[in-house]
Amino acid sequence: MVDRRILAIDVGRGTQDVLLYDPEAPVENSVKLVLPSPTVVVGNAVREAVRSGRPVHLEGACMGGGGSVLAVKEALAAGVKVTATPEAALTVHDNPARVAALGIEVADEAPADAVTVRTGDYMARELQTALSLFGVPYPERVAIAVQDHGFSPTVSNRIFRFSVFKKLLEEADWDLFSLVPDPPHPAMSRMQAVLSAAPEALVTDTGAVAAIGALLDPWVAAQANADGVTLVNVGNGHTLAFTLRGTEVLGLFEHHTSSLDPARLHHFLGKLQDGTLTNEEVFEDGGHGAAVREAIGETPVAVTGPNRATLLPDAYQAAPFGDMMLTGCFGLLEVWRRRRGGL
């Protein structure tokens, strides 16, 4: 029999959210997992190596930074030697000079006494083991979302990521689905690393699939298809907001969640709605940027993401299929349906 199941994995800064979709069963009965994200796992492994008193060697693919890079910096500050293969070193920075300036030695082989820590966003072996413990066979089809800044050794990765977003939108008449090309944009190095590990996978961006997943909530869809909606994903690392009419993007901005409070977020959302928010304002505030095609005016606000209740407690709390933590996974399935069919 043909295996029609799809494993959707939404890799974030704090968690990786996993949904094993089976078209033969109600979606509510799907196997679901909310696990520590790969960057958290790698960061913990680095700290455990430091506690052993041994050097650390990073080996594997380019992956998301965050917790992993923070742990490496802590190790260096404690006087621990850190080495990394060329690919693994891209996790720290795209510019080799910046990697060396931190004190990391790029080396193909681990020093004899070092603890080797594997890097990579797609934890296939661990997920296969977890599912096998419950007698669940690993599916043939996999969809993975990561938050990618792109390969940008000399330009701010915040500028580069947002410039790719804007270019994709402009080339496709500002349709939301333009932000999730299949295969991914060639400059997105983190996505390309995942694709190398899973060549047949659908690989795309976490922020866009969260918005697409939130649109599967009936209330959000109704607002978007009527007068429009302001849709916000408040993730552990990043906050990405859209003004939408249907799937047409009228404006968007991206910021770091840790830099926002309710008042600051409301300020940006108001300016996004009235069409006055500028890229410079968001970037100079420490965010990624903004792009506004036209003002949408005051609209209902819907929010998803693990920090939604902290920053937007009064907004509509979007939860497609009753499960907010899997919004990105549901978005991945919708992208699969549109790009590849067969759901």
User: So, CATH architecture of the largest domain?
Assistant: 2-Layer Sandwich
Q: Report the mean per-residue pLDDT as an integer.
A: 95
- What is the helical fraction, as a range of percent? 25-40%
Structural class: alpha/beta
What is shown here, in short?
This protein has 343 residues and is an alpha/beta fold. The chain has helices spanning 38-51, 67-77, 86-89, 96-102, 124-132, 157-171, 189-197, 206-214, 218-225, 262-274, 279-284, 308-311, 327-339, and strands at residues 6-11, 15-21, 31-36, 56-60, 82-84, 105-106, 115-119, 141-146, 202-205, 229-234, 238-245, 248-256, 289-292, 301-304, 316-317. The protein has three domains: 6-37 and 123-144, no CATH class; 39-119, Rossmann fold (3-Layer(aba) Sandwich), CATH 3.40.50; 149-339, Nucleotidyltransferase, domain 5 (2-Layer Sandwich), CATH 3.30.420.
Structure write-up:
The protein folds into 3 domains: 54 residues, no CATH class; 81 residues, Rossmann fold (3-Layer(aba) Sandwich); 191 residues, 2-Layer Sandwich (Nucleotidyltransferase, domain 5), CATH 3.30.420. The chain is built from 13 helices and 15 strands. α2 links the parallel β4 and β5. The chain is 36% helix and 22% strand. The chain is of the alpha/beta class. The strands form 3 sheets. A 6-stranded mixed beta sheet has the order 13-12-11-10-14-15, sandwiched between helices. Strands 3-2-1-8-9 form a 5-stranded mixed beta sheet, with helices on both faces. The chain has a 4-stranded parallel beta sheet with strand order 6-5-4-7. The model has no long low-confidence stretch (mean pLDDT 95). It is globular and about 65 Å long. The two termini are 15 Å apart.
